[in-house]
């Protein structure tokens, strides 16, 4: 037990030295760390409560999801009934009261229309229900009604997609360790450490980024368009920067190309006026579609529409081939960059509104750090004094192990890119207090063995050997509780669990293995005939 070959000594000291080395950058200023090689920038990230930052609670409207599903179903119904050689003629489709209804012009085709429409409905998760009910009223009218199970399933899917889109957008901003998690059925919590001005974040997250290209209806009557009326097949959209005057414009409803065909979007500058623009690139299908539409509509204006608002309506002077295009519209560099980020990360499936906003100032975070450091220093001093007074030389070994343990915990957290929060500091203090538990068990067992009449070497060997079983079992139960908190907890609970689990692993290693190495060197060097514990 007290014989350590050179490879074993290296196997004990090397991980400890690496952990200490990786902890050093966490104590250095930012400007110094930035000049270090990438592999040496192993810093512990500070959470929102320590570094300050922004907290947003976003809420999605279930009504928007329901409206979008109705609109999608209307488009699918029109397409399906016009498909093939046997087209089924229907009247205007009404979407009043959250349901679709239309009349089949030939009553003998009602059953055929229902047969075509039913496959458009799907199962609503595992509920056993369909997402839409299809019924025939008055022998010629078909009514399509969304079910509650279908709406709930659609909201669930939309929130999952929205969470991932938000995560991509925040990652594009270059922030580290954001907290993004769904809360309830239709809310998302976003916490971004280090971001003191949440306006840019709100603008980015509140943008649905639904991009569409549509042809401008040049035949529409300007007077009627100004009053919000458009010809059949067209719609009136807001156009705040319309050079023609009225802040509205009429466009055809048919979408030429949509943002779903994009592969990249980057902020750039217009070569003529050096104005900020957004350069976009389509995938293969989108590029072919865009080239075909622009080739067929030379000398006609087309509208670039973002979230239902026209950004610009340039004229197609020549076919736009190659799969790339530019978006202009009175951008600033910041707004153009935000739009590029939003387009790259994909559109939100549902509009999100900010229902709660909090900003944690850096001063409050500094106070938290100061309080945590004070508590840690007091805990270390108290534990060190107790161990020294109780166990003398062996207490010094235990205190050295605790000091190294603290640095190794920081080093491991830096390697893993973990985030330290205020509850994490509480986990730190708890780890410091319990890190010497293993040493207490070992030293008390050595005392017991010495009282039984064993010599010094035998007492130390039996003390470490017999106490190790108890230490292992106690820490396994401790780790199980921490693992459950890590798996099921979130936010502060997870931060506490991370520090606790790392502390359990490092404290057992330093308290048992490292102190045994120190004791073995002392025994071989001094050959003591008595130990004073």
Automatic annotation (TrEMBL):
It comes from the Bacteria. GO terms for biological process: intracellular protein transmembrane transport; protein targeting; protein transport by the Sec complex. GO terms for molecular function: protein-transporting ATPase activity. It is found in: Cell membrane. Residues 159-217 form the Protein translocase subunit SecDF P1 domain. Residues 353-522 form the Protein export membrane protein SecD/SecF C-terminal domain. Belongs to the SecD/SecF family. SecD subfamily. Part of the Sec protein translocase complex. Interacts with the SecYEG preprotein conducting channel. SecDF uses the proton motive force (PMF) to complete protein translocation after the ATP-dependent function of SecA. It holds the Pfam family SecD_SecF_C. Its main location: membrane. The chain crosses the membrane at residues 369-389, 396-416, 422-442, 471-490, 496-519. Keywords: Cell inner membrane, Cell membrane, Membrane, Protein transport, Translocation, Transmembrane, Transmembrane helix, Transport. This is Protein translocase subunit SecD. It is a multi-pass membrane protein. Residues 245-350 form the SecDF P1 head subdomain domain. Forms a complex with SecF. Part of the essential Sec protein translocation apparatus which comprises SecA, SecYEG and auxiliary proteins SecDF-YajC and YidC. GO terms for cellular component: plasma membrane. It comes from Sphingobium chlorophenolicum L-1.
């Amino acid at each position: 037990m007290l014989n350590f070959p050179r490879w074993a000594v290296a196997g004990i000291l090397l991980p400890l030295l690496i952990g200490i080395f990786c902890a050093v950058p966490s104590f250095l200023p930012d400007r110094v760390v930035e000049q270090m090689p990438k592999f040496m920038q192993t810093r512990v990230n500070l959470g929102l409560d320590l570094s300050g930052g922004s907290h947003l609670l976003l809420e999605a409207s279930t009504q928007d999801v329901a409206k979008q599903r109705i609109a999608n179903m209307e488009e699918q119904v029109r397409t399906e009934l016009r498909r093939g050689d046997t087209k089924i003629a229907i009247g205007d489709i009404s979407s009043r009261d959250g349901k679709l209804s239309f009349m089949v012009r030939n009553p003998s085709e009602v059953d055929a229309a229902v047969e075509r429409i039913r496959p458009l409905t799907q199962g609503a998760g595992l509920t056993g229900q369909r997402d839409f009910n299809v019924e025939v009223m008055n022998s010629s009218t078909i009514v399509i009604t969304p079910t509650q199970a279908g709406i709930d399933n659609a909201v669930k899917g939309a929130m999952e997609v929205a969470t991932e889109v938000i995560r991509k957008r925040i990652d594009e901003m270059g922030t580290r360790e954001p907290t993004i998690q769904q809360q309830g059925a239709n809310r998302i919590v976003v916490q971004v450490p280090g971001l003191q001005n949440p306006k840019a974040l709100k603008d980015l997250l509140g943008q649905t980024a639904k991009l569409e290209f549509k042809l401008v209806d040049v035949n529409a009557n300007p007077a009627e368009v100004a009053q919000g009326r458009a010809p059949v097949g067209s719609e009136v959209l807001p156009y705040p920067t319309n050079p023609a005057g009225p802040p509205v414009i009429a466009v055809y409803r048919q979408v030429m190309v949509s943002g779903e065909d994009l592969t990249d979007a980057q902020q750039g500058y217009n070569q003529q006026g050096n104005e900020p623009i957004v350069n976009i690139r389509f995938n293969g299908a989108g590029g072919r579609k865009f080239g075909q539409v622009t080739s067929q509509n030379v000398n006609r204006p087309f509208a670039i529409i973002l979230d239902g608002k026209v950004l610009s309506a340039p004229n197609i002077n020549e076919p736009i081939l190659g799969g790339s295009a530019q978006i202009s519209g009175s951008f600033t560099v910041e707004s153009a960059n935000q739009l590029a980020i939003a387009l790259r990360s994909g559109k939100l499936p549902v509009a999100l509104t900010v229902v709660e906003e909090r900003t944690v100032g850096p001063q409050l975070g500094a106070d938290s750090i100061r309080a945590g450091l004070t508590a840690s220093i007091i805990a270390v001093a108290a534990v060190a004094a107790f161990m020294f007074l109780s166990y003398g030389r062996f207490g010094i070994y235990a205190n050295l192990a605790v000091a190294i343990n603290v640095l190794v915990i920081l080093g491991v957290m830096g390697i893993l890119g973990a985030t330290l929060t205020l509850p994490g500091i509480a986990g730190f203090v708890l780890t410091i207090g319990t890190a010497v538990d293993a040493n207490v068990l070992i030293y008390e067992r050595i005392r017991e063995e010495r009282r039984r009449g064993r010599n010094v070497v035998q007492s130390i060997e039996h003390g470490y050997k017999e106490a190790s079983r108890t230490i292992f079992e106690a820490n396994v139960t401790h780790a199980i509780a921490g693992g459950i908190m890590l798996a099921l907890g979130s936010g502060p609970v997870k931060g506490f669990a991370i520090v606790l689990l790392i502390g359990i692993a490092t404290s057992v290693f330093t308290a048992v293995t490292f102190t045994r190495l120190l004791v073995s060197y002392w025994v071989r060097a001094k050959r003591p005939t008595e130990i004073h514990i």
